[in-house]
Structure formats: structure tokens, C-alpha cells
TrEMBL record:
Phylogenetic placement of the source organism: Bacteria, Bacillati, Bacillota, Bacilli, Bacillales
One Pfam family it belongs to: TP_methylase
The protein, known as: Ribosomal RNA small subunit methyltransferase I
Family: Belongs to the methyltransferase superfamily. RsmI family.
Top-rank taxon, per record: Bacteria
GO molecular function annotation: rRNA (cytosine-2'-O-)-methyltransferase activity
Major site of localization recorded for this protein: cytoplasm
GO cellular component, one term: cytoplasm
Length: 302
């Protein structure tokens, strides 16, 4: 068990995670500027980018030290010594909130292990910014960062998403975004989604539609910039069907009807795989959930 009071008087102490702008420098907070100016050491994912940020706001006092995935093991002893000495250590990432898809989470644990307080200066987050402008449900969501790039790990992770009831948030690089949207559509069906890029910048863009529509749009574009993908969850897709479907039938009745559609197509000579895919895409439901229901129904009729 661990309990801490983050403040010693009015000021921060120990390790402070400081959110920085994700594009528009006007988004930085007054508190973030104060903490960066008061810090003894600033740990930065990319010192060049952080140096530009500090110079813009005329902050020149703190020592700037690189801290990222590839050097964190070598850097941690120095960081822990600074914390033990009572220094104020600020952690920033290239853009947004530290410890989200970067090694900051490990540093928080290590700081607490040596008794150093940890606090946060909240601020911009690409994941949350994209979620709230996507138009998709925001009451329950899951953030997964970047999917595995290839292989079985990628296939298993995407398959796992099929049953998630929460809205899904993913990051993706420009050269992989089309492939990722295709893979999501193939496994999850033609769900509603949004693709967001250049958040808070001059060319901020939000594209809303179904996964199928996003594929068509991306194929005609040069997908520059880092992307945030927002995809509706399985329950959201099912609920939307209830809202516009026949007489508010139950989820079980709907699934039975969809299984009957698959059965009819199979009787007409369509493969089970193609029938599942076509039916799931037409009704915007999880292909995996439909397949499992179809198998259960087939076993029961056997």
C-alpha cells in the first residue's frame, strides 16, 4: 500500500509529469510554465523539441536531460539520485501527457519506491481530444496506443477488440493507417469510426463515417501526420441497430435473425466465412460475435 501528499506547501516536489502542447503552443498552462521554470532537471523524450518549447517561453534555467525508451535503463540511477537529493524533476514527452505510450509509467513506480512524491500537471492529450470530437460515445472507452505492427500479435489484438463494448482509441503512423483501418474493418465489421490528424494545428482534420468509408477516403489521400483512430464499441454498434431497427427487439432476437441470414446464404452455396462477413458488415456488428452465435445455433440444431 502506498499513500502520499503531493505538495510541501504551495509548490510541487519530487517527480512532476508535465503535459505539453500537442501542436498549438497556446494550449500550455500557466502552471506547466511555472513548474518547467522552477524544475532542477527536465527529463525530455526529445531534447531538441523540448529546447524549442522552452526557448519559445523564455525558460532557460533547468538542466535538460534526455529520457526515452532506448536510454531509460541507463538514465534511471541518475534520476533516482536526483529525487533522493530532493530535486524537483519534471518529465515531459514530445507532445501531450507523459507516461501515455512512453516509459514515464515505469519512472512513476521507481520514484515511489524511493519515497519521492509524484504529481501531475494535466493538460493536452491527443487521445482524449480526438475522442471528444469524434461524435462517438465518450462515457466508456479504452485506449490501446499503437497496435503491434505485424504477425500473430497484431491479429490477436485486433480479434480481441471485436468484443469490446467500449469506444476504442488507437494511435497510428501515416504509413500504416490505411492498412490498420482495413484490418479493423475486416475483423470488426463496418462500424462507425473517426480518423483524426494534426490536432490543434492549422490543418487539423476529422473524418467521420464507417470504417469502409474511411478506407475509401484514405485510399484517395496522402495520409500525412500522426493519426488517432476512434472506433465504436460492439455494444454501441448493437444499440444503434436497435434504435433504427424493427420495433426495438431484444439483442438475442436480433442475433437469431442475423444467424438465419447466414444460414440462408450458406444454403444458397455461399461459404460460412463469406456469409458471416457480409452479414456482419451489413448490420455493423462484430464478425466474431456473429460467428460464435452461428456456431452455437448450429450445434443446438445438430
Amino acid at each position: 500500500m502506498d499513500s502520499q501528499f503531493s505538495f510541501d506547501g504551495p509548490r510541487e516536489r519530487g517527480l512532476v509529469l508535465v503535459a505539453t502542447p500537442i501542436g498549438n503552443l497556446e494550449d500550455i498552462s500557466a502552471r506547466a510554465l511555472r513548474v518547467l521554470g522552477e524544475a532542477d532537471v527536465i527529463l525530455a523524450e526529445d531534447t531538441r523539441r523540448t529546447r524549442q518549447l522552452l526557448a519559445h517561453f523564455q525558460i532557460s534555467g533547468p538542466r535538460l536531460v534526455s529520457y526515452h525508451e532506448h536510454n531509460r535503463i541507463q538514465r534511471e540511477p541518475d534520476v533516482l539520485n536526483w529525487l533522493k537529493e530532493g530535486k524537483l524533476v519534471a518529465l515531459v514527452t514530445d507532445a501531450g501527457m507523459p507516461a501515455i505510450s512512453d516509459p514515464g509509467a515505469d519512472l512513476v513506480r521507481l520514484a515511489r519506491n524511493v519515497g519521492a512524491p509524484v504529481t501531475v500537471v494535466p493538460g493536452p492529450s491527443a487521445a482524449l481530444a480526438a475522442l471528444v470530437i469524434s461524435g462517438l460515445p465518450t462515457d466508456r472507452f479504452v485506449f490501446l496506443g499503437f497496435l503491434p505492427r505485424s504477425g500473430r500479435a497484431r491479429e490477436e489484438e485486433i480479434a480481441r477488440l471485436a468484443g469490446y463494448p467500449e469506444t476504442i482509441i488507437l494511435y497510428e503512423a501515416p504509413h500504416r493507417v490505411i492498412r490498420t483501418v482495413r484490418d479493423l474493418a475486416r475483423v470488426l465489421g463496418n462500424r462507425r469510426a473517426a480518423a483524426v490528424r494534426e490536432l490543434t494545428k492549422r490543418y487539423e482534420q476529422v473524418v467521420r463515417g464507417t470504417l469502409g468509408e474511411l478506407i475509401g477516403w484514405l485510399e484517395g489521400e496522402e495520409p500525412k501526420g500522426e493519426w488517432v483512430l476512434i472506433v465504436e464499441g460492439a455494444v454501441s454498434a448493437l444499440n444503434e441497430h436497435h434504435m433504427f431497427g424493427e420495433g426495438g427487439s431484444s439483442g438475442e432476437d436480433d442475433m437469431n435473425r442475423w444467424c438465419e441470414e447466414v444460414t440462408r446464404q450458406v444454403a444458397e452455396g455461399v461459404s460460412v466465412r463469406d456469409a458471416i462477413r457480409e452479414t456482419a458488415q451489413r448490420h455493423r456488428i462484430s464478425r466474431r460475435a456473429l460467428y460464435q452465435a452461428y456456431l452455437k445455433r448450429a450445434e443446438g440444431n445438430g
